[in-house]
Structure prediction request, 153 residues.
Amino acid sequence: ANQGRVHHAVKALLAATSFQHLIRIAVDELPAMLDVAAVAIGVENGERLPGAAGDTGVVVLKPGAIDALVGADRAIALRPVAEADRVVFGAGAARVHSVAMMRLSFGPHAPAGLFALGAAAADGFDARQGTDLLGFLAHVLQLRIRRWLSLGT
Prediction:
């Protein structure tokens, strides 16, 4: 079932027609597709992404926040929700009781990125779970963001 959900989510991300559409799909549609309470995308350094004017659904994080959330030497972290996660999920934080935090790289001169999934169940994400499908989903999102940013949209 999880593999089917991820495949459905990837198809939706691949169908995005603009950068803003991609972010809207990720933040607004992926929660239902993946059966999670919330999805967030974040970038560090307080820099605006090109084409990300206005209310984009992208959370601006302080420098070093992603290392603190995911771990300096990790690409993915699965764990119970922590107080620091409230910043990432904003208004949806109250519904989140466990998280999957995935590091995103948009390129050598772009700010660090984060893809976060929040589950309503305390055991929705657990460090003992495999991360292959989550890593695949994060990689697809990362590549799609890179594509749109390189087009200047």
Summary: The mean pLDDT is 88. The radius of gyration is 14 Å. The first helix runs from residue 2 to 14.
